[in-house]
Amino acid sequence: MSKFDKDNAFFKIETAVEKADYLAKSLIQNYNLDAGMIEDTMEALVFAGNRENIGMEMEILCDYIDSIQSSLKSFREAVSA
Q1: For residue 68, which of 16, 8, 5 has the smallest C-alpha distance?
Q2: Considering the entire predicted model, what is its pTM?
Q3: Alpha-carbon distance 64 to 26, whole Å?
């Protein structure tokens, strides 16, 4: 693996980490996931109505994390070779 390829792979990993971090923070902020248990009925209904959006964003986040893990594994193998 050339230096250019290593730099490119590292850049892709770094970008994916930044995107995953942004998405995780956005999820927490947009849906008040750090607020604890919802006691208000209206808030609970709004949260329930957003479950599909939350689920889709969580799937995207998992895809980023999987991509990061896969890229790191490839990067480590290339560096150690």
Answers
A1: 16
A2: 0.81
A3: 14
